[in-house]
Amino acid sequence: MADDKLKLYEERKKRFLAAMNLEKPDKVPVRLSLSEFVAKHAGYTLQEIYYDLEKNIDSINKLLTDFDLDAITGAPSLWWAGLHDAVGAKYLKFAGRELDPNTQFQYHEEAYMLPEDYDAFIENPTEWILNTFLPRLHEELSEPGSYRANLSLIKGAAGMAMQQGMNKKAWATWAAEYGGVPAFTAMSKAPFDTLADTLRGLTGIMLDLYQRPEKVKAALEVLIPHNIFYGMATSGGEMEFPLFMPLHRGSFPFLNPKQWAEFYWPSLKQVIEAFWSKGKRTLFFAEGNWTPYLESIAELPEKSIVFHVDMTDMAQAKKILGGRFCLSGNVPNMMLAYGKPEEVRDYVKRLIDEYAGDGGFIIDAAAVIQGDAREENIRAIIETAREYGVY
Amino acid sequence: MVNLTDELSIAIAELDGDKVMALVKERLQAGVKPLEIVKKLQDGMTRVGELFETGEFFLSELINCGEIMKGAMAELEPILAGGGQGYRGNIVIGTVKGDIHDLGKNIVVMLLKGTGYNVIDLGVDVAPERFIEAVKENNAPLLALSVLLTSCLDSMKEAVTKVKESGLDVKVLIGGPIIDDNFREYCGADFSSNIASEGVKIAEKVFA
User: May I ask the CATH architecture of the domain A3-81+181-388?
Assistant: First the structure.
């Protein structure tokens, strides 16, 4: 690692960690959750970054050369579309395949798990996933035991290992050559979200809450240790940086308050507390509006999360969670795409004035930044934070 | 807020699926006209929309109610003579090109159907030309366009622009969690909302 880059890495890391520990760093850290914007900035189509791992990784080199960021979320595409094609995944639609070459990838939600699957899932989730769920979800696995299915399992596993190996190498390069610091180093989900997004789908889970609440609870129980294990496994033993937890169906107004307290919160709380007991903090990436639930979230151990604000009322979040957890967010993505740099500047200034004063604050957009964000607006966030965010 | 007096309307507003199905069958056997039964169901559904708007109901109640309605309609539709009679009007709806999200749209469809409109749902990733064709074919006074992704907002603008340029006499409603008045103006749409239940109110204005 070149000396100047090492110094830069250490400076940024110190700033980022200090904010998460509710301390006052030298400046308000800037962590931008950038995805498809990075491809556009580097001059790649979305099809290129979804299908070509090297371009996906290279786009970050360009980003880190051009922008001064304290923490980055990694290569713009989480997925390698070639891997999904190799197994015939039905649940993701990619640019250049089902969508135009410059269209955002999208998740195709269905009730991939049926009501009658609950018992088998609860009995042995891994067995059910391998024998029933994967064949249902992947064209190439539709006939388990066939040569195509066997081949696609090999291809899928090899592809996954290749992608992870390249990503690991990329992170080492970003740190050494650009001083790039990771915003997180592990991932997991709320048990209810695993069940509600990926398995039962929105309509399915909503009906289950009325028709088979006990099955839902039993499935959540099974998912708690699984999601804890998954988080720790993906951390690879790294404990300084947080774990990324994108939160979906606990936002307002999906569930009524009774359902939220009964089905969403207890299992999520257990998962987050388990991480914290092992020394791993959670980036509570609260997508949508979580204002009605702030009081419950305040029950979590001090500093155990970074509460990310998307559409949650920032003033309420500060009032209820401030001084307990670091807050991050919430420059509106509509403003980044359709607003002017002056508006962005004013917004960032106001965030710093009103919420960053006593430390424990990280500047970020409200949601993941896609290809529609304008470069001048991204620059405006960073420049304003650097200018006004000095403690 | 509607005041419900009918047992069936109350049952659907209280999300009592078993009771709804039992009452529908009972009334059909007693010779009540299917259309009258549908009307009672719609009253209950309207109440559910109102409760969602006032924050007493959440999406879980709304979706559950929609599924109960679907079950009841499956019983009633085959015997509704000459299909289409009794509808309050035709509405074309779909998610704009480039976006495949439909959860929000489906909730709006459910509410509109539930309150008595004939909804022509074109699905997701719909090109502007298909919207124009469907409006023409169905002579629909209202077109509803849905979007979730901010990166598909330009696609929304394109759809609205093309529909307006076609010269069709149709009002355009745009909806999605990120839609606001500024964007409605930018697009040139007639109505906008980010709340599913407002779709019904807007339809009532258009079909008044």
Answer: Alpha-Beta Barrel (3.20)
Contacting A with CB below 8 Å, chain B residues are 15, 52, 55, 57-61, 63-64, 67, 98-101, 103, 106, 125, 149-154, 177-178, 180, 182-183, 186
pLDDT of the residue at A99: 85
- Flag whether B84 is in a domain: no
ipTM of the shown complex: 0.86
Q: How far apart are CA B162 and CA B146, in angstroms?
A: 16
Q: Where are the domains of chain A?
A: 3-81+181-388
**pLDDT tens for each residue of A230-256:** 999 999 999 999 999 999 999 999 999
DSSP conformation class of B105: H
Q: Which residues contact A179 (CB under 8 A, 6 or more apart)?
A: A5, A6, A7, A8, A9, A11, A12, A64
Residues of chain B in contact with residue A93, where contact means CB-CB under 8 angstroms, are: 100
Whole-number mean pLDDT of chain A? 96
Work out the average pLDDT over B58-76: 90
Residues B141 and B202 in one domain: yes
Domain that holds residue B166: 90-206
Encoded amino acid at A126, one letter: T
Residues of chain B positioned with their CB less than 8 A from the CB of A99: 98, 100, 125
